[in-house]
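ugh ok fine here u go
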Amino acid sequence: MGIKDQFQEKTERMQQQGRQKADQARGQAQDRARRRDDDAEGMDQPRRQEPSDRARRDREV
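structure:
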């Protein structure tokens, strides 16, 4: 195997690793965005409840 072949294989390996890291980072970013949306929905819920529901919930606690 020549030096050119070795460099080409190394380049291909590095490109594949780069793609895998990019895919992983993309997935993590989507997970963070999804969690952020879920947290935002959870924070909005008490404000959306009817006043009677809120009073009933407060009495239960």
